[in-house]
Amino acid sequence: MNIEREQLEMDVVFVGAGPANLAAALHLKQKIAEHDEFVEKGIKQGRKIGELEIGIVEKGSFVGAHILSGAVMDPIAIRELMPDFLEQGCPVDSAVTQDAFWYLTESRGIDAPIIPPPLKNKGKYIVSLSKICEWLAEKCEEAGINIFPEFPAAEIIYDENDRVVGVRTGDKGIDKEGHPKGNFEPGVDLLAKVTVLGEGSRGSLAKHLMQRLNLMEDKEPQVFSLGVKELWEVPAGNFEEGKVVHTLGFPSDTDTYGGGWIYGMKNNVISIGYVTGLDYKDPNIDPHLEFQKFKTHPKVAQVLAGGKMLKYGAKTINTSGYWTMPKLYADGVLIVGDSGSFLNGQRIKGIHTAMKSGMLAAETIIGAFEREDFTSKTLKHFEEKVNMSWIYDELHPVRNFHASFQSGRWSALINSGLQFMTGGLAWGFMPKEHHIAGHERMEKLSAHENNGTRYENVKFDKELTFDKITNVFHAGVAHNEDQPSHLHVLDTEICATRCAEEYGNPCQRFCPAAVYEMEFNSKTDRKELKVNFSNCVHCKTCDIADPYQIINWVTPEGGGGPNYKGM
Ligand code: SF4
Questions:
Q1: Which residue among 98, 212, 424, 463 has its CA within the 20 to 30 Å range from the CA of 57?
Q2: pTM (2 decimals)?
């Protein structure tokens, strides 16, 4: 189809309105004003930059719609961005008042007498990251930054020398068969001197960029985990506001990275969730069911007794950290936040590092405008700034944390102790390859035949435990059904044959939203893949965990997806 597209020329385009890009855009505005004032007063040498045209494109129907996190926020970065963030009305929920660490066996819960130092959270804030992003977006708009919700960046635009020169937003009004409907609106080409990719974990454009420009060369593969979360309202007295619990043990096996959380929020609301490493070996594992099973543990069920589930969500996080950071720049482009492996897996925190990465990207961009050079020559300073900042001080000592879990839970705990005592100098029990991509670790079903009963005691009583369809309803998911599926399965023959035999079609289990189903086809006399794309909560698990790497997640029509308001 030959489509005439509108072109919009901007100076800087940010892809994704998450914490990294919102902090970046705001910091950029603030620092340009400061820079120009200093130049004018002769305090700083150089030339004034002036007003820049800055835009943020966001695939959700509003900023925050697709933002999901636990979350306990370390305020270090937001305080640098806005020292009076609380006075300015930043909607943090509760200050953390107490920490606990529970080790769970099948039937018992042991309250650890000592909290592992990385999990001490006093002085931090329990937040809804969706609310924080909505608020940051208001601050950006007040500062004159253009935000475009419902505009997914569908493609990167490169020039003839492979320089990134902007992004193309997705077309609207295409039917299932790929034909334009009456309401067809072509996507727009947003041209920019610098494009910043902050799409979160497994960003679809960041993935494309890394492959095309080979940005993972000499790096270890990124390893991800899936967090499945519910918000509950519980009877007063069940769980204190400001209390933060992290758990280890049940229901994960010792070969699988996993752990739970319970955070006490205002008005007897609690955030409860479970993280499962997407580098598990057993293809029977279902991260949604791991979470449902977690809630049946007596110590956890007691917290939820008499309560009501309010909302549901699921999202991957990039847990592998420093060794797995891609090259963070190329001509005309920077990668920030979770897309660039900025999360600290040991602290299970990434909001502060994401924001700081965005702020350092903003400072790099100012340098680029000063020199009027938007090539790698100037943008490489971003990586130098990261390595000279507290991000490096925080992430480098824990660089082996996730890799050590790939040798099993006990060696990981010994490693963490060694790392803590030696400031990150000593590690033992490391897998010799270091990080291994999750899909490469999945073993064949034949090696785990006896584990088919793993979830037989999870009954979906719809009071404590819920099936995926009920949960999806509580994620507020909506997609226009008359559009092409945004889940591109490159070879469905593999699904019906090799994958069925070798792995038992694990997509049916690792997807937390019941998108993938194997359905009997009487014409071919076999089960074939059915993709219920409208259930998709945009977690990206399928793109990551599929053992054949034949699932490609692309952006659906703008505005489609979950509604995580307040999550
Ligand atoms: Fe997540 Fe993929 Fe399922 Fe969508 S289809 S919810 S991205 S696993």
A1: 212
A2: 0.96
